[in-house]
Amino acid sequence: MTSRAQKTTRTPDGRLIVVSNRLPFVFRRDGDGRWQSEPSSGGLVTALLPVLRYRGGTWIGWTGSAGTAPDLESEIATAGKETGYELRAVPLAADEVHNFYEGCSNEIIWPLFHDMQQMCNFLPEYWRTYREVNHKYARVAHDASGPGDFVWVHDYHLMGVAAELRRLGTKARIGFFLHIPFPSPDIFLKLPWRRETIDALLKFDLVGFQTMRDRRNFVQCVRALVPGVEFEGRGQVLQAAIGEHSLRIGNFPISIDFNAFVRQAAAADVAAHAKELHRLLPNRKLILGIDRLDYTKGIPVRLRAFQNLLERYPDLRERVSLIQVVVPSREDIDRYRELKTEIEQLVGHINGSFVRPGGWVPVWYVYGGLSRLELLAYYRAADIALITPLKDGMNLVAKEYCVCSIEEDCVLILSEFAGAAAQLARGALLVNPYDIEGVADTIHRACHMDRRERQARMRRMRRSIRENDVFQWVDSFLRAAITKDLSAFPQPEHYVAEEAPDTSLAL
Ligand code: G6P
To answer: pTM of the predicted model, to two decimals?
Structure first.
């Protein structure tokens, strides 16, 4: 850990102020009504921890519940002390949660940026609250930061933070990373507040995207909406100038903590759990899907592809089971509740059509959160991972699956519309998730792939993830904010190979 933290010495000198919609902790009341906190398990938290400890810093975000609770404040302070950095909560009232989080963030920006404009609910009051809540986050960040610090804002909920920080006269440098895709102009221009959004993003000092495609889409939207922006550079990081202000724009594919996953996946209890899964579901290939309950993940169409597989390839009946894990998410939004019903009806239909009395169940459906042990055991037990989002910023499940496959003897089937496809194209079987028969044929191919090919493909993907882990991701983002010479940022080799070169400057 220390060595990775030391790798970040070329980052900005001051403290790091991280701003994200949620704090990196989950706060819950226990049976006696007292608050208990638990750190979130995500890679982002793990990756930023060494920098926050080394530089000193603050994490600003929402607790996840509406309103304020005075007794929660002391729990937040205690949790902060234990982590080695300060936590500052941004309280959100119930109507702010409704209009900003559920409304603008998750009924406008989320679907639009995932190319699902028909799902958008473009209500002006959503946007008004989005703007106000972004100002709220900005005020907390302004109070927490000083000259020389680096404020790093995360994700689509908070695109307006830099604009407000500039108005407040903040001296710190400000970066932004978008974890979800950035849509093409055809889609983005539907946003009623498109110009304000682009202007707000141009107020950052560094704007990072997951892939070259996202970056190219952003550059094209800037060109379509804001006259007179000059772009320079050809590598991973471009320089743009707008009036007096200049900013950098790059692509930084997020990753995971490779070594931690390998270590944990190799543990004896994980192996025992994985073995138990094979005992419960014997003599068959296990195909795994793990997703948050979200319409961008393509779960219904994936289930239809699995049904199609069983219809067209009877040799695979009783020889395969699909384990589909669905993790509850955004349960107060109607679309998410409707999706749950749709998935459960489809699972019931497939199982009802193919089930054999006393034996084989085609779809093993799990609705609920997984413990770390269960997650790792599913990864280790699965012969094939079926990760077919209709659109996804990166999809870290794909990377986690590869890394946990320590025998390197399994197959990843991956949607070409996941950001991870740009990096894993040489090892995964890429599919168009909308193509039901194409996905079914690819599952069939994966089931019959020989061991040598499985291992060669998996080895290639694991090497790429090891060389580009989450620590390297943090390091490259922070370096991009301060490095003078942008020629130090050529496009990583695998990106140049997998995607068409970025010719945005010529567009
Ligand atoms: C996506 C977003 C994250 C978000 C996560 C969970 O991965 O990019 O910013 O935190 O979904 O969604 P939730 O709405 O529960 O925070």
So the answer is: 0.94
